[in-house]
Design brief:
The protein has 183 residues and is mainly alpha-helical. The protein has helices at 3-10, 14-36, 39-56, 66-84, 104-119, 123-133, 139-146, 150-168. It has 8 helices and no strands. Helix 1 (3-10) crosses helix 2. It is globular.
Length: 183
């Protein structure tokens, strides 16, 4: 995005704003979908961010930070959507056994477990994981976008990854017994 387009949009140029949003919509939607894990909620969040962008664009002081500012608007819209739709998936445990090569059913079960674990994370941890690992923001950049200390970003990343590891860990009963007495 060029700073010139942003400046023109700030001045009320609808065509410039449309150009900016055309370029930004797909990435915004992809980020929202990864955070919210629901297509319709992601569409709503992306639309909310676009409306907020148009409404608040004149207040943006540093046009070179437009993309980070737009991501902040999207994150806030995702938080709002998550608050409005606090639905929890049914919790049940699928026993995960090591996946055999070419076993499509096991691959689907693994994907489902990963999805359930990710959806079970608090929104703040999902946001940190997505914006770090999918978008590629550093912890410092993310702290600026989220308006939190860098240590908070590291904490969210740590606890989010830790929760994912715990959720995806194979229960002891499902692990093969390799002790001497089992032979």
């Amino acid at each position: 995005m060029t700073a010139d387009l942003v400046r023109r949009a700030q001045a009320g140029d609808h065509d410039a704003f449309e150009s900016i949003i055309r370029a930004a919509y797909d990435p915004l939607f992809a980020i929202a979908q990864r955070i919210l894990r629901d297509r319709s909620l992601a569409e709503d969040a992306a639309q909310d961010a676009i409306v907020r962008c148009w409404r608040d664009l004149r207040g943006l002081r540093d046009v070179d930070r437009f993309e980070a500012w737009l991501h902040r608007l999207l994150v806030n819209a995702c938080r709002d959507q998550a608050r409005r739709n606090r639905r929890r998936m049914d919790e049940y445990v699928l026993s995960l056994e090591p996946t055999a090569r070419g076993d499509e059913f096991a691959r689907i079960v693994d994907h489902d477990e990963l999805e359930r674990a990710f959806v079970g994370l608090p929104a703040e941890q999902r946001i940190a994981l997505v914006l770090t690992h999918y978008v590629g923001y550093s912890a410092t950049e993310l702290a600026s976008i989220l308006n939190v200390p860098t240590g908070t970003v590291y904490s969210r990343l740590h606890y989010g990854a830790q929760a994912m590891r715990r959720a995806l860990a194979v229960p002891d009963a499902a692990q093969p017994d390799t002790s001497e007495s089992a032979r």
